[in-house]
Write a structure and sequence with these properties.
The structure holds 2 protein chains of 2 kinds. Chain A is an all-alpha fold. Helices cover 79% and strands 0% of the residues of chain A. In chain A, α2 packs antiparallel against α6, α4 runs antiparallel to α5 and α6 runs antiparallel to α7. The termini of chain B are far apart. The chains are: A mainly alpha, B mainly alpha.
Chain lengths: 197, 126
Protein backbone atom coordinates (compact mmCIF):
# COMPACT_ATOMS: atom_id res chain seq x y z
CA UNK A 1 0.00 0.00 0.00
CA UNK A 2 2.80 2.35 0.95
CA UNK A 3 4.65 1.62 -2.29
CA UNK A 4 1.49 2.24 -4.32
CA UNK A 5 0.97 5.55 -2.50
CA UNK A 6 4.53 6.63 -3.21
CA UNK A 7 4.18 5.58 -6.85
CA UNK A 8 0.98 7.59 -7.19
CA UNK A 9 2.65 10.69 -5.71
CA UNK A 10 5.72 10.43 -7.95
CA UNK A 11 4.60 9.19 -11.37
CA UNK A 12 7.18 7.90 -13.83
CA UNK A 13 8.84 10.49 -16.07
CA UNK A 14 11.00 10.02 -19.17
CA UNK A 15 14.00 11.50 -17.31
CA UNK A 16 13.44 9.48 -14.15
CA UNK A 17 13.40 12.77 -12.25
CA UNK A 18 10.26 14.38 -10.90
CA UNK A 19 9.25 17.16 -13.31
CA UNK A 20 8.92 19.69 -10.48
CA UNK A 21 12.49 19.06 -9.39
CA UNK A 22 13.77 19.39 -12.94
CA UNK A 23 11.75 22.59 -13.30
CA UNK A 24 13.20 24.20 -10.16
CA UNK A 25 16.74 23.31 -11.26
CA UNK A 26 16.08 24.82 -14.70
CA UNK A 27 14.68 27.92 -12.99
CA UNK A 28 17.77 28.09 -10.76
CA UNK A 29 19.91 27.84 -13.89
CA UNK A 30 18.13 30.84 -15.42
CA UNK A 31 18.52 32.72 -12.13
CA UNK A 32 22.29 32.10 -12.31
CA UNK A 33 22.34 34.09 -15.56
CA UNK A 34 20.16 36.82 -14.05
CA UNK A 35 22.48 37.33 -11.09
CA UNK A 36 25.58 36.95 -13.29
CA UNK A 37 24.43 39.97 -15.30
CA UNK A 38 23.76 41.98 -12.11
CA UNK A 39 27.12 41.02 -10.55
CA UNK A 40 29.00 41.81 -13.75
CA UNK A 41 27.22 45.18 -13.98
CA UNK A 42 28.33 45.93 -10.41
CA UNK A 43 31.92 44.93 -11.23
CA UNK A 44 31.97 46.94 -14.45
CA UNK A 45 30.89 50.11 -12.63
CA UNK A 46 33.10 49.42 -9.60
CA UNK A 47 35.34 52.39 -8.88
CA UNK A 48 33.74 54.48 -11.66
CA UNK A 49 31.70 56.78 -9.41
CA UNK A 50 32.86 60.38 -9.58
CA UNK A 51 31.01 61.52 -6.46
CA UNK A 52 30.44 59.85 -3.08
CA UNK A 53 29.46 58.21 -0.93
CA UNK A 54 31.88 55.43 -1.81
CA UNK A 55 31.79 51.83 -0.51
CA UNK A 56 34.58 52.36 2.04
CA UNK A 57 32.63 55.27 3.54
CA UNK A 58 29.47 53.36 4.35
CA UNK A 59 29.90 49.57 4.51
CA UNK A 60 29.63 47.99 7.94
CA UNK A 61 31.36 44.62 7.62
CA UNK A 62 30.34 43.28 11.09
CA UNK A 63 26.64 43.81 10.33
CA UNK A 64 26.87 42.15 6.91
CA UNK A 65 28.93 39.29 8.35
CA UNK A 66 26.10 38.73 10.82
CA UNK A 67 23.61 38.67 7.92
CA UNK A 68 25.84 36.20 6.04
CA UNK A 69 25.94 33.93 9.09
CA UNK A 70 22.14 34.12 9.32
CA UNK A 71 21.76 32.92 5.72
CA UNK A 72 24.32 30.13 6.21
CA UNK A 73 22.54 28.94 9.36
CA UNK A 74 19.18 29.14 7.58
CA UNK A 75 20.55 26.87 4.84
CA UNK A 76 21.61 24.38 7.50
CA UNK A 77 18.22 24.60 9.24
CA UNK A 78 16.22 24.06 6.04
CA UNK A 79 18.24 21.00 5.04
CA UNK A 80 17.79 19.61 8.58
CA UNK A 81 14.07 20.30 8.22
CA UNK A 82 14.00 18.39 4.92
CA UNK A 83 15.92 15.52 6.52
CA UNK A 84 13.38 15.40 9.36
CA UNK A 85 10.47 15.52 6.89
CA UNK A 86 11.95 12.59 4.96
CA UNK A 87 12.29 10.65 8.22
CA UNK A 88 8.65 11.40 9.08
CA UNK A 89 9.62 13.48 12.15
CA UNK A 90 6.99 16.25 12.08
CA UNK A 91 8.13 18.02 15.26
CA UNK A 92 11.70 18.47 14.06
CA UNK A 93 10.48 19.49 10.60
CA UNK A 94 8.43 22.27 12.20
CA UNK A 95 11.26 23.35 14.52
CA UNK A 96 13.97 23.59 11.83
CA UNK A 97 11.59 25.22 9.35
CA UNK A 98 10.56 27.83 11.92
CA UNK A 99 14.23 28.61 12.58
CA UNK A 100 14.88 28.91 8.85
CA UNK A 101 12.04 31.40 8.44
CA UNK A 102 13.23 33.35 11.49
CA UNK A 103 16.77 33.62 10.06
CA UNK A 104 15.31 34.73 6.72
CA UNK A 105 13.20 37.42 8.40
CA UNK A 106 16.22 38.68 10.39
CA UNK A 107 18.24 38.84 7.16
CA UNK A 108 15.53 40.89 5.44
CA UNK A 109 15.39 43.12 8.53
CA UNK A 110 19.17 43.55 8.40
CA UNK A 111 18.94 44.58 4.76
CA UNK A 112 16.10 47.04 5.38
CA UNK A 113 18.15 48.60 8.20
CA UNK A 114 21.25 48.70 5.99
CA UNK A 115 19.43 50.34 3.08
CA UNK A 116 17.75 52.98 5.26
CA UNK A 117 21.12 53.67 6.94
CA UNK A 118 22.80 54.10 3.54
CA UNK A 119 20.05 56.41 2.26
CA UNK A 120 20.50 58.46 5.43
CA UNK A 121 24.21 58.73 4.57
CA UNK A 122 23.36 59.98 1.07
CA UNK A 123 23.66 56.80 -1.01
CA UNK A 124 20.71 56.70 -3.42
CA UNK A 125 19.91 55.00 -6.73
CA UNK A 126 20.28 58.33 -8.55
CA UNK A 127 23.32 59.61 -6.63
CA UNK A 128 26.14 57.70 -8.31
CA UNK A 129 26.99 54.52 -10.22
CA UNK A 130 27.87 52.69 -7.03
CA UNK A 131 24.45 53.42 -5.52
CA UNK A 132 22.59 52.34 -8.67
CA UNK A 133 24.50 49.07 -9.15
CA UNK A 134 24.64 48.26 -5.41
CA UNK A 135 20.91 48.75 -4.76
CA UNK A 136 19.96 46.89 -7.94
CA UNK A 137 22.09 43.84 -7.09
CA UNK A 138 21.44 43.57 -3.36
CA UNK A 139 17.82 44.74 -3.75
CA UNK A 140 17.03 41.94 -6.20
CA UNK A 141 18.72 39.47 -3.86
CA UNK A 142 16.68 40.81 -0.93
CA UNK A 143 13.52 40.42 -3.01
CA UNK A 144 14.45 36.79 -3.65
CA UNK A 145 15.00 36.26 0.09
CA UNK A 146 11.58 37.77 0.82
CA UNK A 147 9.93 35.49 -1.76
CA UNK A 148 11.80 32.55 -0.22
CA UNK A 149 10.51 33.42 3.26
CA UNK A 150 6.93 33.60 1.96
CA UNK A 151 7.35 30.28 0.12
CA UNK A 152 8.83 28.56 3.18
CA UNK A 153 6.04 29.99 5.33
CA UNK A 154 3.39 28.42 3.06
CA UNK A 155 5.22 25.07 3.33
CA UNK A 156 5.41 25.60 7.12
CA UNK A 157 1.61 25.96 7.23
CA UNK A 158 1.27 22.76 5.19
CA UNK A 159 3.59 20.92 7.60
CA UNK A 160 1.58 22.23 10.58
CA UNK A 161 -1.58 20.87 8.93
CA UNK A 162 0.11 17.49 8.48
CA UNK A 163 0.08 17.72 4.69
CA UNK A 164 3.81 17.07 4.15
CA UNK A 165 4.34 13.38 4.85
CA UNK A 166 7.66 11.75 3.80
CA UNK A 167 6.17 10.86 0.40
CA UNK A 168 5.50 14.57 -0.18
CA UNK A 169 8.84 15.79 1.18
CA UNK A 170 9.63 16.92 -2.36
CA UNK A 171 7.32 19.90 -1.75
CA UNK A 172 9.73 21.03 0.97
CA UNK A 173 12.80 20.01 -1.03
CA UNK A 174 11.84 22.29 -3.94
CA UNK A 175 11.38 25.28 -1.62
CA UNK A 176 14.66 24.36 0.10
CA UNK A 177 16.50 24.25 -3.24
CA UNK A 178 15.32 27.79 -3.98
CA UNK A 179 16.41 28.87 -0.50
CA UNK A 180 19.87 27.32 -0.93
CA UNK A 181 20.22 29.11 -4.24
CA UNK A 182 19.46 32.42 -2.52
CA UNK A 183 22.19 31.49 -0.04
CA UNK A 184 24.81 30.65 -2.71
CA UNK A 185 24.11 33.94 -4.48
CA UNK A 186 24.87 35.74 -1.22
CA UNK A 187 28.03 33.63 -0.84
CA UNK A 188 29.19 35.34 -4.06
CA UNK A 189 27.80 38.82 -3.28
CA UNK A 190 29.35 39.04 0.20
CA UNK A 191 33.03 38.89 -0.88
CA UNK A 192 32.59 40.56 -4.28
CA UNK A 193 30.57 43.55 -3.07
CA UNK A 194 31.46 43.98 0.60
CA UNK A 195 34.95 42.55 1.14
CA UNK A 196 36.53 43.64 -2.17
CA UNK A 197 35.59 47.26 -1.63
CA UNK B 1 11.75 9.06 13.98
CA UNK B 2 8.42 7.24 14.00
CA UNK B 3 8.93 3.63 12.95
CA UNK B 4 6.29 2.45 10.50
CA UNK B 5 5.74 -0.89 12.14
CA UNK B 6 5.43 0.65 15.60
CA UNK B 7 2.92 3.35 14.67
CA UNK B 8 1.17 1.88 11.69
CA UNK B 9 1.49 5.31 10.16
CA UNK B 10 1.20 5.06 6.37
CA UNK B 11 3.34 8.15 5.82
CA UNK B 12 6.20 6.77 7.87
CA UNK B 13 5.82 3.55 5.92
CA UNK B 14 6.37 5.49 2.71
CA UNK B 15 9.52 7.02 4.23
CA UNK B 16 10.64 3.51 5.06
CA UNK B 17 9.94 2.42 1.48
CA UNK B 18 11.98 5.33 0.06
CA UNK B 19 15.00 4.61 2.30
CA UNK B 20 15.76 8.29 2.87
CA UNK B 21 19.21 8.28 4.50
CA UNK B 22 19.76 10.05 7.83
CA UNK B 23 22.29 12.81 7.08
CA UNK B 24 21.79 15.31 9.91
CA UNK B 25 25.31 14.81 11.30
CA UNK B 26 26.88 15.40 7.91
CA UNK B 27 24.81 18.55 7.36
CA UNK B 28 25.94 19.96 10.72
CA UNK B 29 29.60 19.24 9.90
CA UNK B 30 29.23 21.07 6.57
CA UNK B 31 27.56 23.96 8.45
CA UNK B 32 30.54 24.24 10.81
CA UNK B 33 32.94 24.25 7.83
CA UNK B 34 30.89 27.02 6.17
CA UNK B 35 31.05 29.16 9.32
CA UNK B 36 34.83 28.61 9.58
CA UNK B 37 35.30 29.55 5.91
CA UNK B 38 33.27 32.74 6.42
CA UNK B 39 35.39 33.60 9.46
CA UNK B 40 38.51 33.07 7.32
CA UNK B 41 37.09 35.41 4.66
CA UNK B 42 36.47 38.18 7.17
CA UNK B 43 39.81 37.47 8.86
CA UNK B 44 41.61 37.78 5.50
CA UNK B 45 39.80 41.07 4.89
CA UNK B 46 40.86 42.44 8.30
CA UNK B 47 44.50 41.35 7.91
CA UNK B 48 44.80 42.77 4.40
CA UNK B 49 42.96 45.98 5.33
CA UNK B 50 45.15 46.67 8.37
CA UNK B 51 48.38 45.87 6.53
CA UNK B 52 47.76 48.02 3.46
CA UNK B 53 45.11 50.57 4.43
CA UNK B 54 42.83 48.95 1.89
CA UNK B 55 42.19 45.23 1.49
CA UNK B 56 42.61 45.42 -2.27
CA UNK B 57 46.21 46.58 -1.78
CA UNK B 58 47.26 43.06 -0.79
CA UNK B 59 48.19 40.85 -3.75
CA UNK B 60 47.03 37.64 -2.10
CA UNK B 61 43.67 39.01 -0.97
CA UNK B 62 41.48 38.61 -4.07
CA UNK B 63 42.63 35.04 -4.97
CA UNK B 64 42.19 33.98 -1.32
CA UNK B 65 38.74 35.47 -0.95
CA UNK B 66 37.54 34.08 -4.30
CA UNK B 67 38.87 30.60 -3.47
CA UNK B 68 37.10 30.61 -0.08
CA UNK B 69 33.89 31.82 -1.72
CA UNK B 70 34.10 29.13 -4.42
CA UNK B 71 34.63 26.46 -1.77
CA UNK B 72 31.57 27.62 0.20
CA UNK B 73 29.52 27.72 -3.01
CA UNK B 74 30.58 24.16 -3.89
CA UNK B 75 29.82 22.82 -0.40
CA UNK B 76 26.28 24.23 -0.39
CA UNK B 77 25.58 23.06 -3.95
CA UNK B 78 27.00 19.56 -3.45
CA UNK B 79 25.74 18.73 0.03
CA UNK B 80 22.81 21.00 0.91
CA UNK B 81 21.38 21.04 -2.63
CA UNK B 82 22.18 17.31 -2.94
CA UNK B 83 23.97 17.63 -6.28
CA UNK B 84 26.56 15.15 -4.97
CA UNK B 85 23.87 12.48 -4.98
CA UNK B 86 21.67 13.73 -7.85
CA UNK B 87 21.76 12.40 -11.40
CA UNK B 88 23.83 13.70 -14.29
CA UNK B 89 20.93 15.63 -15.79
CA UNK B 90 20.55 17.96 -12.78
CA UNK B 91 24.32 18.31 -12.42
CA UNK B 92 24.47 19.18 -16.13
CA UNK B 93 21.68 21.77 -15.93
CA UNK B 94 23.40 23.58 -13.04
CA UNK B 95 26.96 23.25 -14.38
CA UNK B 96 25.97 24.51 -17.82
CA UNK B 97 24.18 27.49 -16.25
CA UNK B 98 27.24 28.32 -14.13
CA UNK B 99 29.49 28.03 -17.17
CA UNK B 100 27.33 30.43 -19.20
CA UNK B 101 27.06 32.76 -16.17
CA UNK B 102 30.88 32.85 -15.90
CA UNK B 103 31.14 33.60 -19.63
CA UNK B 104 28.60 36.45 -19.22
CA UNK B 105 30.61 37.99 -16.36
CA UNK B 106 33.99 37.65 -18.10
CA UNK B 107 32.68 38.84 -21.48
CA UNK B 108 30.96 41.90 -20.04
CA UNK B 109 34.00 42.84 -17.99
CA UNK B 110 36.33 42.41 -20.97
CA UNK B 111 34.01 44.42 -23.19
CA UNK B 112 33.71 47.27 -20.69
CA UNK B 113 37.45 47.23 -20.00
CA UNK B 114 38.05 47.71 -23.71
CA UNK B 115 35.35 50.37 -23.79
CA UNK B 116 36.87 52.38 -20.94
CA UNK B 117 40.49 51.80 -21.94
CA UNK B 118 40.33 52.69 -25.61
CA UNK B 119 37.34 54.99 -26.03
CA UNK B 120 38.21 58.50 -24.94
CA UNK B 121 34.88 59.99 -25.99
CA UNK B 122 32.75 58.25 -23.35
CA UNK B 123 30.02 60.38 -21.81
CA UNK B 124 30.79 61.41 -18.25
CA UNK B 125 28.71 59.64 -15.62
CA UNK B 126 28.35 60.34 -11.93
Amino acid sequence: MAHAEAHALHPETSTGIDNRKLAIWTFIGSECLFFASLISTYLVYKGKSLVGPFPKDIFEIPLVTFGTALLLFSSLFVVLSLNAAEQGNRKKTILWLALTITCGLFFVGMQVYEFSHFVHKGLTMQGNLFGASFYTLTGFHGTHVTIGVIWLFTVFIEVLRGKVPPAKALNLEIAALYWHFVDVVWIVIFPVVYLMN
Amino acid sequence: MAHPHATGDATAAVAHEHHFPEKAGQYVRIGIILVVLTALEVGAYEVAHRAHGTALGAVWFIPTILALSALKFALVALYYMHLKWDGRLLKGVFSFSLFVAAIVILALMALMFYHYAFNATLPKVT
